[in-house]
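Supplementary Methods, section 5.1.

A reviewer requested that the exact input to the structure prediction be made available. We therefore reproduce it here, unchanged from the version used in the analyses.
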Amino acid sequence: MPSDGSRRGSDDVQGAGFGGLLRRHRREAGLSQEKLAELAGLSVDAIAALERGRRRAPRAHTLRLLADALRLGDADVAALTAAARQEADTARLPLRQPPAPISELIGRTTELTATTRMLGQRITRLLTLTGPGGVGKTRLTLALAGRVADNFPDGVCWVPLASVTDSAAVAPTAATSVGMHLLESSRLVEEIAEQIGRSTMLLVFDNCSHQVATVGRICATLLEHCPNLSILASSRELLRLPGESVYVVPALSLPHDADQLASSEAVRLFVERATARGYDPTGQLDQVARVVRRLEGMPLAIELAAARMNVMTIEELATELETSFSILAGGSPTASPRQQSMYGAIEWSHALLTRTERDAFAQLSVFAGGWTLGAAAAVMPGGATRVEALDLIGRLADKSLIRVVRRGGVARYYMLGVIREFAADQLRASGETDEAAARHARYYVELAEESESHLRGPDQGEWLERLEGELSNLRAAMTWALRTGAATEALRLAGGLWLFCYLRGHYAEGSQWLERALQLGDSVPPEQIADLSAVCAKANLGAGTLAFLQCEYDAATARLQTALRQYKELEDPAGTALVLQRLGGVARERGDYEAAEDLHCESYDLYESLGDRGGMAWAHNHLGFVAWLRGDLEIGERRCRRARDSFRVVGDGEGLAWSLISLGAIAQYGGELVEAEDLLQESLALSQRLGYREGVAWSMNLLGIIERRRGLTERAVHLLDESLAEHRDLGDRWRSASVLEELAAVAQQRERSEYAAFLLGAADGVRDVIGAPVPVIEKADREATRAAVEASLERRAFRAAWSAGRAAPLAAVADGYPPPGAPSAARTRDPL
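The structure derived from this sequence is encoded cell-by-cell as follows.
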C-alpha cells in the first residue's frame, strides 16, 4: 500500500501546480523563501518566480537543488518532478519561426552549399554570416535556416534584432522567441538556457551588428549550457567568440563577358526587380551588365537601382550611376530606414564606429582601387605606425566596411564603391580632403620613383604588376597634382612612371601626364628651377619616348633634344646615353639608318665608359635592330645574339623579349621558319608574362608572317588581326602599317584582290601621315603583293580600292568597319 506521503504527493500533482507544491514543501520544512534560496544556491527571485508561476518548468538540475534543500523523499521528489513535467508540456509558447521570404532567392548556390555543410554537419555550432550592409545577409540567413531545418528536430527559432535599440532588450527578445513568458529576472539568460536544455535546435540571431557585444555574451552562455544547440547569426561585425566560424557573404556574381550575361546572378536580380516595376530590360542585358558592374553586385544597390526603372531608361540609369550613387534610394516604405537607401544602410554601420574608427574610415576614402598597409599608414594623419594602421583596418574589416584580398603574398584592402563614396562625403564634411589627398600623392610619388630602379632587371615583372595594381591610385595622385598646380609632385610622378607607361602600353595617358606636368614646370620661379633640373630632364626624356612610340616624330625629337641638352648640363652620362638611344629609334623609323647607327654607337660608348652592362646590351640590340631592318641579317644576328646573352645575365625581361623578337625576325627573313617560330613563341610568352604589350604585338605580327609563308592563311589572319588591334590601341602607327601590308598579302593569297588593294592603300595612308617609309627588309614582300593585286584587278578597280583605303581612318580599318566609300569586300569583320 502506498505511503501517506506518496498519496499526498499524487493528490498535490492533481490539485496544485508546481508552484503550489513547492510552496507547500517549503512551509512544511519551516523555511522562508530567503532560506530556501540560500540552501539551494538559487536567487530569492527565482524561488518567488517558481512559486507564483512566473517561471514554469524548471530544468532537472534546479529540481535536484530544491529537493536536496527540502530533504524530500523519493516519492515527494517524483511528485515534484511530475508536476514540473506536466507544466513543461503546457507552459512553452511556440518558437518564433523565420519569416517567409517575399521573393525567390537569386543564385547563392555556392554560399548555401558551403554554409549548409558547416551547420548541417555540425562542423561548427556557431556560424556568423557577415558582410557589408546590403549584401543580402538576412536573405541568405533565411534560406540557410530553411535548408538545415530538418537537421534540428526541436526546431528553428528566429530572433530578430534589427529594431532592438536597447541592449537590455536583447535577452527578453531571445526569451520570447524561444517560447518563454516574459518575467523580470537577473538570471534571464540562464533561464533561457534552462528552457532550451538539451534540445537539438537552431537559434538564429538576425541583424546583430548594433548589439554585437550583448549577443556575444548571450551566445557564449547558451553554447556552454546547451550541448545540442547551434547558433546562426547575421551581422556586419564578428561576435569574436571562441569556436565562432565566419562566412563572408560575397556580392552576387557579375558577367565577365557576353556569354555570361543571362546566367549572372546580379543581372538576373536586376531583370527580375525591374520587370516587377513594369520595365523588362531583357533585350538590353549589355546595359544591365554596365549597371550591376558599377554596383559591384550588391543586392540592395541592385534592387534600389531597379526600382528607378519606373521613371528612367536603362541607359540613363547606367550613365547616372557613373557619376554618383545618390539615386540609390526609394526602397520599400515598409522597410527599415537602413534598407530604403544605400546611404541609410552605410550610415547605420557608420553610426556604430568609434570616433577613431570614423576618422580612419574617412581618410581611407582617398584611395582609389584599394591600398596596402604601408600606403594606409602614410595617408593617415599624425604619422600613424604600421601597427596602428593595421589595427584600424582590422577593426573596419571586422565591421564589413573594408574588404581584404590576399594575392601574391600581399594583403590589399578595398572599399566597395558605394561605401567609398559615403566615406568621401564624411572626409569632405570634415574639411580634410585636400590634406589627405596631398599625403596620398606624396606616397605615390615616392613609390613611382622607387620603382624606376626595379623596372630594369630581375624584379621587373614584380614591379610592373605592383604599379599596375596601383594604377587607379597613381591616376588619382596625378589628377590631384595637376588640379592643384603642384608642379614638383606632377613632374616627379610623371617622370617616375614613363617607363612603366611604355612597358604596359599606356602611351597616350603617360604622354598627357608628362606634357601637362612640363607645362606646370614652366611656371616654376627661376630660383626653384635648379632643384627640378634633373626631374625636368627625365620628364622630357619620357615625353619624347612616348611621343616617338606613337609616331609623333617631330614632337618626340623636340622633347628628346631638350632632354639631351639638360642631361649634358647636368653632366649625367647615363641620362645622355638613354636619350641618344631614343633619338636613334626616331631615326630608325624614319628610315635614316646611318644616323640611327651613329646615335646607337655613341650611346654604346657612354654605357661602356660607365661599365653599364645593361646599357651596352641595349645598344647592341638597337644596332642589331637597325641592321636587320635595312637587310643586313648577318650583322643583325651577331649583335642581337650578344644582346640576348647579356639580357639573360642582367635579368632584363623587356630586353630579352626584344632580342628574341629581332632574332626571330632575322630567322624568318632568312627562311628558317622553325627556328623563327621557336624564338617568337618564347618572346610572346615572356611578353605576355610581363604584360609587355609592344612585345606581344610584335611577336604576333612576325608569327603571322611565318604562317602566311607556310600557306596557313587562317592562322595568319588571326595572329595579324590580333597584332593590328594591339598596335592600334597602343598608337603605334608605324608598325600598324606593316601589319596592314601583311594582311593585304594574305588577302591576295585568298584571291581577295579588291580588299588587298584597300589594305595596301590604308597602309600607304598611314605612312604618309607619319612620314615614315617602308623598312627596307619589308619592301620586297610589299612590292610583290602590290604587283599581284594590280595584275588581278582592272586599273580602275585597283585605284578605287586603294583610294578608299588611304581615306579610311586606321581605327576603322583595324576594327573592321571601313567607311562608306570602301569596297564591299572590306565591309565585314573578317573579310579574309
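The longest helix spans residues 433-452. These observations are discussed further in the main text.
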